[in-house]
Amino acid sequence: MAIARGDGTEPYALTVLYGQRHLEEVEASKRVAAQLGAVEHKFVRVELDAIGGSALTDAIEVPKDRDESKMTDIPVTYVPARNTVMLSLALGYAEVVGAEAIYAGVNAVDYSGYPDCRPEYIAAFQTLARLATKAGVEGRPIEIRTPLIQLTKPQIIQRGLELGVDYALTHSCYDPADGRPCGHCDACLIRLKAFESLGMKDPAL
Ligand SMILES: [Zn+2]
């Protein structure tokens, strides 16, 4: 969202409540959208936990202290079809408010296991967005922008710092306890290591 702002846009924020086990990230999204001045912040509920199949929506344990070399397999924190559902909602929302682009923070580098974070997937969705919308058919296709897709985690943090992102407002952990990051899931490990490599302390801890 900070990058979208930096591009001179007036961003609308979309948070999806998809049946995730904890709502820390939803609370964080409210803080971040307010701080970055979203024109509007929309919350949409989709009960993906009715389908299940993920440690983020089911009673499957979130893996802890995994070796980074093993983070290349598709992990149990993968949520079946999540990004397709979320981008579809964003596409509808974008068309309603007349947005020219959707910004999605997917990343293919740190999480190479997630099929719906890859450039091929985004390119396919871009084709869909052109064919599936009135805007696209009328020659004003909504662009899917993924500025983080090829950056490493330290590069992402650096980019945010340049744009004035307050990381104390953010949340990445898959399995927080009492609102605090666990420090041991894949998301925590990658984030902690990235801050460390920049010689910084994670301000959200
Ligand atoms: Zn964690």
UniProtKB/TrEMBL annotation:
Q: Name one GO molecular function term.
A: ATP binding
What cofactor does its activity depend on?
Answer: Zn(2+)
The residues that the entry says bind Zn(2+) are C173, C182, C185, C188
EC number of the protein: 6.3.4.20
Q: Which SUPFAM superfamilies match?
A: Adenine nucleotide alpha hydrolases-like
Residues that span the membrane, as ranges: none
Entry keyword set: ATP-binding, Ligase, Metal-binding, Nucleotide-binding, Queuosine biosynthesis, Zinc
- State the pathway, as annotated in the record: Purine metabolism; 7-cyano-7-deazaguanine biosynthesis
Catalysed reaction(s) here are: 7-carboxy-7-carbaguanine + NH4(+) + 2 ATP = 7-cyano-7-carbaguanine + 2 AMP + 2 diphosphate + 2 H(+)
One GO biological process this protein is involved in is: tRNA queuosine(34) biosynthetic process
User: What CDD domains would the database entry show?
Assistant: QueC-like
Bound how, and how many: what does the cofactor note say? Binds 1 zinc ion per subunit.
List the InterPro entries hit by this protein, alphabetically.
QueC, Rossmann-like_a/b/a_fold
Entry's family note: Belongs to the QueC family.
Tell me the function of this protein. Answer: Catalyzes the ATP-dependent conversion of 7-carboxy-7-deazaguanine (CDG) to 7-cyano-7-deazaguanine (preQ(0)).
Spell out the protein name for this chain: 7-cyano-7-deazaguanine synthase
Which organism is this entry from? Fimbriimonas ginsengisoli Gsoil 348
> What lineage, starting at the top, does this entry show?
Bacteria, Bacillati, Armatimonadota, Fimbriimonadia, Fimbriimonadales
- What gene is it encoded by? queC
